[in-house]
């Protein structure tokens, strides 16, 4: 019956607009059809991906790159379950994304209806919060709350599951009400004083910078703290770029594939200052041997992180934007310590003169980051190439490095690059992927083509699941079990079939020209790079070992033809 | 050793499952649960838990429960945030 009352679905769309959403990613289907019906002609920019997982990763990286809340929609049942990897990814890396899913009509719920799954139940462990909407009139308030929860405190994904009949029902016009305000807690003066006292007594202080600093929008305060104190710093995978990786005092990433200088500093420090970092096992190695001589100061917005893995001598709960400027120590003389670290950094710097004529991936990535300049954003996949990016690319800003850190989800790179490029169209966004990872969301090349998203892709092809192969080589006595991808398709042809430009290199002398050509292209382009399948990531801290027990680089005899 | 946690929770979709799931996922056995009505929007929940291994710390669990939405009050768990002490077994140094 025609009426001028809005439907629940119309309220979804009008609320998203009122919340300032301009891009959302999704894929339609039965249970979410009322919402897609309301979407058409609404002015919201919807990116129709080719797989819901692509939508979830794209929304995640859009949020990381822009600092806004990402939005992603899918239908019930298989549409929703295809989002789970992306939801878990956003949860592990604390990324604010609102997921809106269709659900079967209320009267069918609990009957094993067509395309019914208990999505709220399935996602409980990997969302910050969730709703199953029972009353369409509540949609504006719920969505507004969902956006607020996604962003406040420690950010994370929020799910809003909407049954089809609720979306289709007419409601009295409903308002989203006041957007709930949230003020981050201010740090306690006693904790700041206690931290200051520890720094003033320290001889070998070290900053351990995690992804939480950028999430707190405290990059500038962190940079200022480094300048004021002159304390050397290491970064986690997610912390890279928070303070420019070009900085003199940057000792690189710590942990499993960290730099030698970084891990040596952690072993030697007498005061570890963890800022927005969570003592993840990939960073700490064997916990009992991590920073064994250090007292710990821990800054975090999430009280549940304190003492979780490592007891903190001083835990500072609250807003980093306030806490870092409030901490004004009178610095002791740490010049010997700084010298010790700079010497290590120089002595153990990466070398790029690998023997042979084949493409040396670390060297290629170094050139790529140099040539792309300051407006460079990399979205990587998961594997050896991801670790090479972390080791060999330089980042002026934290948002320049998009990676599936906590969850380590292959298939992230291509959709993540797409989301970032949509969010920041004037940046050079490059996806660096491996042949295994790329295949996991290869269909999103069609999305690039459709919307003319000018993403560049560097595909480092070693015809295998490289990182798994490396572990099998080192820790499973070269028992190469199910890692061979030598029957990969011709990726250049595949990319062309999707309507992208594509070209291939196999030799080192081709690298510079290829990067220039890639960056200059004005359409989405794939650079397919054949690399030595036996190349490994060095250094490496073996699983379960302490960060002091790094395995060192060694050059293999080169294979110069493929 | 068993310990009890007393929580006041909102009568919201999924809150109960969230609490119980979190307790189990964070490495605690649930030995007993009691629920009682505390008015229109609130339910009381007493959960007796036992750590699955020596590395599990009830204060940390309390902080994790506390950060769930829909939790109104938590007792016998942590002195919030800054002073929660971890168990010696789990922690290094
Ligand atoms: C979805 C998913 N499945 C499996 C893994 C386990 N895994 C980690 S790295 C890796 C190999 C990645 O291979 P590729 O993408 O070719 O990159 P390379 O290591 O060769 O650079 C695998 C299988 C994962 N991280 N994610």
Question: What attributes does this structure have?
Answer:
heterodimer, A: 562 residues, alpha/beta, 6-stranded parallel sheet, B: 93 residues, alpha+beta, 2 helices, 35% strand, disordered C terminus, binds thiamine diphosphate
Layout of secondary structure:
The complex is a heterodimer of chains A (562) and B (93).
Chain A lengths: L7 H11 L4 E4 L6 H7 L5 E4 L3 H15 L3 E5 L3 H4 L2 H9 L4 E7 L15 H5 L5 E4 L6 H13 L6 E6 H5 L20 H13 L3 E5 L2 H4 L3 H11 L3 E3 L14 E4 L6 H9 L2 E5 L5 H4 L10 E6 L13 E4 L2 H7 L8 H13 L13 H12 L3 E5 L3 H9 L8 E2 L10 H11 L4 E7 H6 L4 H7 L4 E6 L4 H10 L15 H7 L3 E5 L5 H10 L4 E6 L32
Parallel strand pairs in A: 1-2, 1-3, 3-4, 4-6, 5-6, 7-8, 7-10, 8-9, 10-11, 11-12, 13-14, 13-15, 15-16, 16-18, 17-18
Helix pairs in contact in A: 1-2, 1-7, 3-5, 3-18, 11-14, 12-15, 16-17, 16-23
Chain B lengths: L2 E8 L4 H11 L2 E10 L4 E10 L6 H9 L4 E5 L18
Antiparallel strand pairs in B: 1-3, 1-4, 2-3
The complex binds thiamine diphosphate (TPP).
Thiamine diphosphate (TPP) binds next to helix 17, helix 19 and helix 21 of chain A.
Describe what this molecule looks like in 3D.
The complex is a heterodimer of chains A (562) and B (93). With 562 residues, chain A is an alpha/beta fold. Helices cover 36% and strands 16% of the residues of chain A. Chain A has a six-stranded parallel beta sheet with strand order 2-1-3-4-6-5, sandwiched between helices. A six-stranded parallel beta sheet of chain A has the order 9-8-7-10-11-12, sandwiched between helices. By secondary structure, chain B is α+β, with helices and mostly antiparallel strands. In chain B, 22% of the residues lie in helices and 35% in strands. Chain B has helices spanning 15-25, 58-66, and strands at residues 3-10, 28-37, 42-51, 71-75. Chain B has a four-stranded antiparallel beta sheet with strand order 2-3-1-4, covered by helices on one side. In chain B, strand 2 (28-37) and strand 3 (42-51) form a beta hairpin. Classes of the chains: A alpha/beta (562), B alpha+beta (93). The A-B interface holds A 120-121, 124-125, 128-132, 134, 149, 153-154, 188, 191, 287-292, 294, 302-304, 306-311, 315-317 and B 13-14, 17-18, 21-22, 25, 57, 59-60, 63-64, 66-69, 80-82, 84-86, 90-93. The complex binds thiamine diphosphate.
